[in-house]
Amino acid sequence: MRIGADFLPRACSALVLAPIVLLVAGWGGWAFGILATLAALIILWEWLRMIAAKPNTVLLVIGGAALVVAVMMLAIRPPHMAMAIVILGAVATALIARGGRERRLWAPFGLVYAGALALPAVILRGDATFGLISLIWLLAVVWSTDIAAYFCGRLIGGPKLWPRVSPNKTWSGAIGGTLFGMVAGMVTLYAAGVHSILLAAPVALLASVASQGGDLFESSMKRRFGVKDSSALIPGHGGLMDRLDGFIAAAALALLIGLLRDPDAPARGLLLW
Questions:
Q1: What CA–CA distance (Å, rounded) separates 259 from 73?
Q2: Which of 125, 145, 180 is at the close of a domain?
Q3: Model-level pTM?
Q4: DSSP β-bridge partners for residue 160
Q5: Are residues 67 and 168 located together in one domain of the fold?
Q6: Over the stretch 103-156, which tens digit does the pLDDT of each residue have?
Q7: Which domain holds residue 133?
Q8: Which pathway does the UniProt entry assign to this protein (predicted)?
Q9: Domain contains 21
Q10: Are residues 142 and 270 located together in one domain of the fold?
Q11: Final residue of a domain: which of 105, 125, 145?
Q12: Helix crossing, 240-261 with 29-51: angle to 10°?
């Protein structure tokens, strides 16, 4: 098996960032809210930078203010209020954005995309009983999917998944990543003493598929706007969006499932079947 040149920077960034995320996630409360908001603000900045939206600073200020208010709103209001603030911010962004038609079209979706990182993470973590478990479950599924897809693709090879968008991804990597991601979700629930392991397995499978879909979506965005990385924030390995694209899609799906099954406790609705 040939290890790609990107393996070392990927591994180093994971070794630095993963312990920080886990530590703050375990802490919860305001610390995790700040971390999620900061990450979302960076994602918004990278999105606007990637599509070269104008006026960049004004859009960033408006979008950033909407994100901060939305996350703060979660402490005193139901989740749909925070989501409404993000949507209103996106509408304001759409009205203010200037430049080419395509860039004006994509500018407001940057705020929605950033909100899809912050809101699901904070809402799920806020559950007093299953919050931490749901977040660790989500991270386990996404990280295992990413790692397994990389190594299965390198080891097995075979037909490409979507060569026009991501030339290095293979069907073997996608299938291997999905299976390992599902198993990781099941193992996490077993370790946490949650007794719906088998019934919750399809949800882990869906989250794994969503994670890979998020990766492909970001790759297609970079190709559309002719950029290699979302930014140069992480030395030698691009931006935060490059590391969180899969998590954003999986977290949004997880929150949707949780809210549909138990609007008062989405983390419980996500994990208990």
A1: 17
A2: 125
A3: 0.93
A4: 170
A5: no
A6: 889 999 999 999 999 999 999 999 989 999 999 999 999 999 999 999 999 899
A7: 128-273
A8: Phospholipid metabolism; CDP-diacylglycerol biosynthesis; CDP-diacylglycerol from sn-glycerol 3-phosphate: step 3/3; Lipid metabolism
A9: no
A10: yes
A11: 125
A12: 120
Element (H, E) at 167: strand 166-170
d(CA 11, CA 57): 33
Give the chain's length: 273
| 144 and 261, same domain (yes or no) | yes
Using one digit for the tens of pLDDT, what is the confidence trace for 176-221? 999 999 999 999 999 999 988 888 899 999 999 999 999 999 999 9
- Total structural domains in the chain? 2
Strand partners for 129: none
- 137 and 257 co-located in one domain: yes
Residue 106 lies inside a defined structural domain of this protein:
yes
DSSP states of the chain: -PPPTTHHHHHHHHHHHHHHHHHHHHH-HHHHHHHHHHHHHHHHHHHHHHHT-BSHHHHHHHHHHHHHHHHHHTTTS-HHHHHHHHHHHHHHHHHH-BSSHHHHHHHHHHHHHHHHHHHHHHHHHT-TTTHHHHHHHHHHHHHHHHHHHHHHHHHH--SEEETTTEEEEEHHHHHHHHHHHHHHHHHHHHHHT-S-HHHHHHHHHHHHHHHHHHHHHHHHHHHHTT-SSS-S-STTS--HHHHHHHHHHHHHHHHHHHHHH-TT-HHHHHH--
